[in-house]
Amino acid sequence: MQKIQDGECYVEQTFSRLSCIEGDFSGVEFEDCTFEHCDFSGSTFARGKFIDCTFKHCNLSLMKVPSTRWFGVEFIECKLVGVDWTKADWPAFHLDSELRFKHCILNDASFFGLTLQGLRLDECKCHEVDFREGDFSHSFMTHCDFTNSVFMRTNLQSVDFTESENFNIHVLENKIDNATFSRFAALNLLYSLNIELVD
């Protein structure tokens, strides 16, 4: 049975089917590690690091990440409901933390006020996610469902929203210069201008 010990550094290791529900970890560093079918729901990773790691088919819902650094991490088919990413450690000199989410559930997450340029969301469910006052310029948010997610004073310049839907982005309260939208989905942007559309 694999175990994660506080204060340890793990390099190029694979953790498979590890169940640590509501676990409490401090000062643990992971570099070039892979997590497969692990359950860290409700767990706390404090003052740690995840560098160039991959999570596949993992449950990370309600995970807490106080002062933990994330760089070059990819999540594939993971559940990350209710994660408050604002509590993590995001160094000012890394404008692009190279976070990638593919086929993930990110409902009720918070990215409030974060600078995560180049963020990649592909085919993700992003219901009621808080993107307010963040800088996500040059990101890729394609094939996603943004039902009830909030954008306000958000930098979305040059973001690719191709094939994404159900977003409510006020064009006067957010920066959307050079952003890309699918033709029909772009009609949602007009509703925020209080104008009438006719056939």
List keywords for this structure.
15 strands, 4-stranded parallel sheet, mainly beta, Pectate Lyase C-like, 7-stranded parallel sheet, 2 domains, single chain, 199 residues
Helices and strands, with pairings:
Blueprint: E1 9-11, E2 14-16, E3 24-26, E4 29-31, E5 34-36, E6 44-46, E7 49-51, E8 54-56, E9 69-71, E10 74-76, E11 100-102, E12 120-122, E13 140-142, E14 160-161, E15 180-181, H1 187-191
Parallel strand pairs: 1-4, 2-5, 3-6, 4-7, 5-8, 7-9, 8-10, 10-11, 11-12, 12-13, 14-15
Question: Main sheet?
Answer: 7 strands, parallel
Strand order of the largest sheet: 2-5-8-10-11-12-13
Structural class: mainly beta
The first-to-last residue Cα distance is 63 Å
Average pLDDT, all residues? 93
Low-pLDDT sequence parts: none
Q: Name the CATH homologous superfamily of the largest domain.
A: E3 ubiquitin-protein ligase SopA
CATH-defined topology of the largest domain? Pectate Lyase C-like
Rg over CA atoms: 18 Å
The helix fraction, in percent, is under 10%
Which CATH architecture of the largest domain is right? 3 Solenoid
Beta-strand content: 15-25%
Number of strands: 15
Choose one word for the global shape.
elongated
How many domain units? 2
